[in-house]
Design goal:
Layout (H helix, E strand, L loop, with lengths): L32 H15 L7 H17 L2 E4 L5 E5 L2 E6 L2 E4 L6 E4 L7 E5 L1 E6 L4 E6 L1 H4 E3 L5 E12 L4 H6 L4 H18 L3 H5 L3 H19 L3 E12 L5 H70 L1 H17 L43
Antiparallel strand pairs: 1-4, 2-3, 2-5, 6-10, 7-8, 9-10, 10-11
Helix pairs in contact: 5-7, 8-9
């Protein structure tokens, strides 16, 4: 006999199993909304015996609405943001990151610009997605990077501007300019072109980058301050400064020639620094030797003149004695180093063989330097 005719099978009617239980539900049951609403109404009726539209009920509802309205004034400012509180559309204060409060809408509202974040704007180049390299690549923008220098040369300049909102100029940033990034980019490009237009190409390509970056940063800041933009320029970085691609090889040749010129000049200067001090030293040595010789000659001349004067004074006192003494001293000085033979040829002297070589009887002395040997006998 089929079970469907049994009214639920052999265990009786209804969807029950053999143990008297029906199918068990799987998982927690969702709350019954009607039951919750009914319980909430019962509690409100207990609090407000007179009903919802009684005096107490209306007052309680109004108080709850006011409480929710007042609580809606709490807001949180993130770490990179500043809170700009507007009262009926007018900027009244700026709050720091964290939990803050303002009067609920429509009295006060709040704007949350990312004023503490440093923004970057690239001029002369742009970043594009490169699927082949799975990253981003740099593409040059010639209409932004090609600039004319003061000496009528063209230079290709790519640079980056770092900027952020001034802490005390958030209101100016929000209400004085409509497109901040576009304004900063336009002003930066104009300032770079002005500074490059006043400069020569050679300092720009070599060692004047820091000066150029500082001048561009100051000019951008002055322009934005005149606009009341509330923007602070943190830094200007020149990424690439090159001649145009069509003439870059010629510029490299010129740079190499100038480098060789500087090298030769440095070598010549090094040689001059080495030779000039040596020549000056020799000149000083010769000058000192001449001065010493002059002092010596003058001193000897003064000594001889003083000696002559003293001898003359003695000569005036005793002319004969002085004359004889001078004669003897002179003869002693002249004959002191000469070979001498004394021959007495008077009547009492003995005869001498006429052909006797008298010069061989004396010991010959070698001639001294600077003095000729005396020949013959005296």
């Amino acid at each position: 006999m089929p079970w469907k005719n049994q009214g639920g099978g052999p265990w009786g009617s209804g969807p029950k199993g053999p143990w008297g239980n029906g199918p068990q539900p799987v998982g927690p049951r969702p709350p019954d909304l009607e039951d919750l609403l009914r319980r909430g109404q019962d509690r409100l009726q207990q609090i407000m015996p007179g009903g919802y539209f009684s005096g107490i009920g209306i007052t309680l509802i109004v108080l709850l609405i006011i409480a929710f309205w007042l609580l809606s004034g709490f807001f949180r400012v993130q770490s990179e943001e500043l809170g700009v509180v507007l009262r009926f559309g007018k900027h009244v204060r700026t709050v720091q990151p964290g939990l803050n409060y303002h009067l609920p809408y429509p009295i006060e509202t709040v704007l949350l610009p990312k004023a503490l974040r440093v923004n970057t704007i690239s001029i002369g180049m742009t970043l594009i997605d490169d699927p082949a390299r799975r990253g981003r690549s740099i593409r040059d923008v010639p209409e932004e990077s090609l600039m004319l220098t003061g000496d009528e040369n063209i230079v290709d300049v790519d640079f980056t501007v770092l900027w952020r909102i001034k802490p005390d100029g958030v209101g100016d940033f929000l209400f004085n300019i409509q497109n901040p990034e576009g304004t900063v980019k336009a002003v930066s490009e104009s300032a770079m072109r002005e500074v490059i237009g006043r400069s020569q190409i050679q300092p720009i390509l070599t060692g004047a980058r820091n000066v150029t970056e500082q001048g561009v940063q100051e000019l951008i800041q002055r322009t934005l301050d005149s606009y009341g933009a509330g923007i602070l320029i943190s830094q200007v970085q020149m990424q690439k400064v090159d001649p145009p691609a069509q003439v870059i090889d010629a510029f490299r040749d010129v740079q190499a020639a100038r480098a060789n010129l500087e090298q030769l000049q440095n070598e010549a200067q090094t040689y001059a620094n080495q030779v000039v001090p040596q020549a000056r030293g020799r000149a000083a040595q010769i000058t000192q030797a001449a001065e010493g010789y002059r002092e010596q000659t003058v001193a000897e001349a003064k000594g001889q003149s003083s000696r002559f004067l003293k001898v003359y004074e003695e000569y005036k006192k005793a002319p004969d004695v002085t004359r004889e003494r001078i004669y003897l001293e002179t003869m002693e000085r002249v004959l002191g180093g000469a070979d001498k033979l004394v021959y007495d040829g008077g009547p009492s002297g003995q005869g001498v063989v006429p052909y006797l070589p008298l010069s061989e009887l004396t010991t010959k002395r070698p001639p001294t330097t600077g003095q000729q040997s005396s020949g013959g006998n005296r």
